[in-house]
Design goal:
Blueprint (H helix, E strand, L loop, with lengths): L1 E2 L8 E6 L2 E6 L14 H8 L30 H9 L1 E5 L6 E6 L9 E4 L5 E5 L3 H5 L8 H9 L4 E5 H7 L15 H14 L6 H11 L24
Antiparallel strand pairs: 1-4, 2-3, 4-5, 5-6, 7-8
């Protein structure tokens, strides 16, 4: 069975967009630049709260729940949701959930053509705002439900070349940008959107770097959509 990008069945959902409450159509795969205003990304970046980075003490991936939890209750785990959204020529092992094959025609981070094969993948699902970065900028003080939501929110997830993603580590905009310069405005706008939606702060250096990039594309829109900022109560984190 094959599936083309964007083919997942979706429902119309009432979601809280980054800039306020708005009704829009989103998939299990999430963010679309719907209802945004030209220049909204730069305006949002300028509004982010600036604080120093908190210690990484206490950070553990388990504090954000089990990896790829099905928080949107569509019976597919989050990783497969994002693979279905972002890959072309998608094939499945069983039904229409477990992705066995697909292609990143042009990886957003590197610009390379990358093939995904389950079990020996060259594709990662990246948290645009790394979880350890989020931990140091507010998430350590959250309830578990909000951390789980962030870790599985399609607004904060993207399929990318694995080797390029691993070079990023847990860097923020001040320390890492995609080598593919043509994607940098979109990437930074996504980081701003996530930090705005989840009320995460930024460091002074990070904010300056965000604004520097977005001033090169002053019409850049702010992505919106994704999942609610609180995971269903059945999900738990250590």
């Amino acid at each position: 069975m094959r599936r083309t990008r964007g083919g997942s069945a979706v429902a119309v959902a009432l979601v809280f967009a980054v800039a306020g409450c708005t009704e829009q159509t989103t998939g299990s795969a999430g963010p679309e630049e719907t209802g945004g205003h030209s220049g909204a990304a730069l305006t949002a970046a300028e509004s982010l709260t600036v604080k120093g980075r908190a210690p990484k003490t206490g950070y553990d991936r388990d504090r954000f729940g089990t990896a790829w939890a099905d928080t949107d209750s569509n019976d597919c785990d989050t990783r497969d949701d994002i693979l279905k959204r972002d890959l072309e020529d998608v094939r499945f092992t069983d039904g229409d959930c477990k992705v066995s094959y697909g292609v990143l025609e042009s990886d957003p981070y590197s610009g390379k053509h990358v093939v995904y094969r389950r079990g020996r993948s060259q594709v990662d699902i990246d948290h645009v705002v790394a979880l350890s970065d989020a931990w140091q900028k507010g998430a350590k003080y959250w309830k578990a439900g909000k951390r789980i939501a962030l870790a599985n929110d399609p607004l904060n997830l993207i399929a990318v070349d694995a080797s390029t993603n691993r070079a990023k580590g847990d860097g923020d905009t001040a320390t890492w940008l995609p080598p593919n310069k043509g994607y940098r405005c979109t990437y930074v706008a996504a980081q701003v959107a996530v930090k705005k939606k989840y009320e995460l702060w930024v460091t002074a250096a990070e904010k300056a770097a965000m604004e520097k990039v977005l001033r090169t594309c002053p019409g850049q829109k702010l992505p919106s959509g994704g999942n609610p900022t609180e995971a269903p109560a059945r999900f738990h984190a250590n």
